[in-house]
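ESCALATION

Customer reports they have been waiting on this structure for their group meeting. Please prioritize. Original submission:
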Amino acid sequence: MIGSVGFSPMKENKSRKVLKKNGPRQTTEMEKDLYWNFLFISRAIPIHLVIDENHKNLTVKVFVYLLKINW
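Update from on-call: job pushed to the front of the queue and completed.
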């Protein structure tokens, strides 16, 4: 597609670390690559996720942070 911007699904899981597990709650830190396409250029943007899960209430909170973009 010419002249459009598209994001592909997050494919590569760089790291995953469980920070805290307290009963039904679990906090996990993840690093992933988000791939994007613009015209004929495609790049990977590394993002940082902190996921707070509660298995008792079946709730999830996700915090997303951009680390840095390499050109």
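Sent to customer with the following note: The two ends are 22 Å apart (CA to CA).
Escalation resolved.
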